[in-house]
Amino acid sequence: MQRISGLPENAFVVVADGEKALFLRNVGDNQDMNLVVARKIEQSNPAARDWATDKPGRFNDGAGVQRSAVDETDWHQLEKERFARDLADKLYKLAHQGQFDHVVIVASRVVLSALRKELHEEVLDRIILDIPKILTNHPLDEIETHLSRALADAA
């Protein structure tokens, strides 16, 4: 992870949760951040209860009358992890194309954890800071405020 004072001009800021990712670019400079939306990705991810079937599956334990319930798959969680993999792939492609030299990642803890496992070395080398926070539905000025505080605390 790089340590830089402020947010450099043209740095990327990725703000993500399990369903939406905002790719923001700093068109300001280190001292005066000005984020603009460069790209937005959304996917539908219904709540876990909406993925569920009527009741959990069952299987026989062998000869006899005992039956065991099968744990339900958390499809909602799996979709968040898939979204993180797709996001990591997108970041790798953008880094490989030279679209950014510095990136800050702001994501929910679940997505941030999944992203850390999936990010390519080329992206990891460009990370200035990662912040475990959900800001996808905040206006840009609030994102800038949170980011400024986090960058100041990290310096």
How does this structure look, described?
This protein has about 160 residues and is α/β, with parallel strands linked by helices. The chain has one domain: eRF1 domain 2 (Nucleotidyltransferase, domain 5, 2-Layer Sandwich), CATH 3.30.420. About 35% of the residues lie in helices and about 25% in strands. It is built from five helices and seven strands, in the order βββαββαβααβα. The protein has helices at about 50, 75-95, 110-120, 120-125, 140-155, and strands at about 10-15, 20-25, 35-40, 60, 65-70, 105, 125-130. A hairpin with a 6-residue loop joins strand 4 and strand 5 (about 65-70). Helix 2 packs across helix 3. It is globular, with a radius of gyration of 20 Å. The mean pLDDT is about 85. InterPro entries: BaeRF_family12 (IPR041374). It comes from Dinoroseobacter shibae (strain DSM 16493 / NCIMB 14021 / DFL 12). This is Host attachment protein. Keywords: Plasmid.
In whole angstroms, the N-to-C terminal distance is: 13 Å
Unreliable runs: none
Give the overall shape.
Answer: globular
Tally of individual helices: 5
- Measured by DSSP, the beta-strand proportion falls in 15-25%
Q: Radius of gyration, rounded?
A: 20 Å
Mean pLDDT: 84
Question: What share of residues is helical?
Answer: 25-40%
The number of domains = 1
- Assembly status: single chain
| Named CATH architecture | 2-Layer Sandwich
Q: Major sheet: order of its strands?
A: 3-2-1-6-7
Remind me, CATH topology? Nucleotidyltransferase, domain 5
Beta strand count: 7
Q: According to CATH, what is the class?
A: Alpha Beta
Tell me the CATH superfamily: eRF1 domain 2
Question: What class would the helix/strand composition place it in?
Answer: alpha/beta
Helix and strand run: EEEHEEHEHHEH
Organism: Dinoroseobacter shibae (strain DSM 16493 / NCIMB 14021 / DFL 12)
Keywords: Plasmid
Pfam family, one: baeRF_family12
Protein name: Host attachment protein
